[in-house]
């Protein structure tokens, strides 16, 4: 079967550049949206040029220019959005409604993957403010997609390894300590942590797979379903010493949010739901979902042990 042509929106972002790499690596004709109003962001421009050198094609279009967006969409089969969805990187989730309008008008798209890549928003209606805004906005986009009868796949990639594993699941910490660690509660709540390159690879694998059409794809690599305490134990074995452990209760954690900037409060809410509530693992995948590592066992995913070895 001929591989789909892919357009990636937000290709210079944190997960977007991984998606471009994976799409090219798996042999897809890959297009990356280039905004005309890039300004003086030379790093972003150089990254776009590097994509071009690797074989990607740049399409000049903007979410704020409907016709340019329609013209771009008409050149491909699949659209993947990786626009920023967390406040500290810029929250642009609802901008995708313009993309939905363009896809609907173009009428040729076989699959649309909106920017999700984290916790399944359909399961987060109870989420605390201000972190709930991210989930609510993603559900607004989902509703627009489904009302427009656009074929879709939603990617629930759980916890990015870069944010969770590196800091031993401690908020606002991306490198591991070698002396001490703060456990959330008893540290025994299970989470799921996935390397960002693996997220991109699984994502691109789904786009021509009929099994993932109009489904939510959950990425749950078995060896990376771990509690915070288990993550710490892996690190302790790697460095050959036991860390000094303290703990923070759920009440203390939530109280510590007060007075902090909006962006930090939003991030802390996400950590609360993952590390105290267990929102990534406290449910079974239903008929409307499939699990990526079972669909694509050929992907040799990065384990938590392998990821943490990078810090030695």
TrEMBL record:
Regions that span the bilayer: none
Pfam families reported for this sequence: NmrA
Family: Belongs to the NmrA-type oxidoreductase family. Isoflavone reductase subfamily.
Molecular functions per Gene Ontology: lariciresinol reductase activity; pinoresinol reductase activity
Subunit structure, interactors included: Dimer.
EC numbers: 1.23.1.1, 1.23.1.2
Designated name of the protein: (+)-lariciresinol reductase
Organism: Arachis hypogaea (Peanut)
Record flagged with keyword Nuclease: no
Position of the signal peptide: none
SUPFAM superfamilies noted in UniProt: NAD(P)-binding Rossmann-fold domains (SSF51735)
Cited Gene3D superfamilies: NAD(P)-binding Rossmann-like Domain, UDP-galactose 4-epimerase, domain 1
Enzyme class (EC, first level): oxidoreductase
Keywords annotated in UniProt: NADP, Oxidoreductase
GO BP, one annotated term: (+)-pinoresinol catabolic process
NmrA-like domain: residues covered: 2-308
